[in-house]
Amino acid sequence: MEEAPSNDSEDSYNETVRKLVFQDYIPEASAKRTVGIPLALFTYGMFSLFNAFFKELGFNVLLSDPTSEKTVALGQQYALDETFH
């Protein structure tokens, strides 16, 4: 029987990707207006563009916290069901 791959190598890879993608991200408390960007899969591909664009316009850029089980549960609790007529 094959063993599942170690989570250590997956965690190391994920951390390396995060460092590369978000290397120019410096969260700062500022009086400037702030643009919040959700930490989603799409963000990993486009963050450098978003960050440079909004910084050039004079905005502070703030990433959301990573999604947790609590975030998912709250989303399910407060999401409205779609209605069809």
The total beta strand count reads: 2
Class by helix and strand content? mainly alpha
Strand percentage, roughly?
5-15%
* pLDDT < 50 runs, ≥5 residues: none
Order of helices and strands: HEHEH
Count helical runs: 3
Strand order of the largest sheet: 1-2
Helix content: 40-55%
Head-to-tail CA distance between termini? 53 Å
Overall 3D shape = extended
Cα-based radius of gyration, to the nearest Å:
18 Å
Arithmetic mean of pLDDT: 82
Can you walk through the features of this model?
- The protein is mainly α.
- It is 48% helix and 9% strand.
- It has three helices and two strands; from the N terminus they run αβαβα.
- It has helices at residues 7-21, 41-56, 69-78, and strands spanning 34-37, 60-63.
- Strands 1-2 form a two-stranded parallel ribbon.
- Helix 2 links the parallel strand 1 and strand 2 (60-63).
- The protein is extended, with a radius of gyration of 18 Å.
- It starts with 6 loop residues before the first helix and ends in a 7-residue tail after the last helix.
- The model has no long low-confidence stretch (mean pLDDT 82).
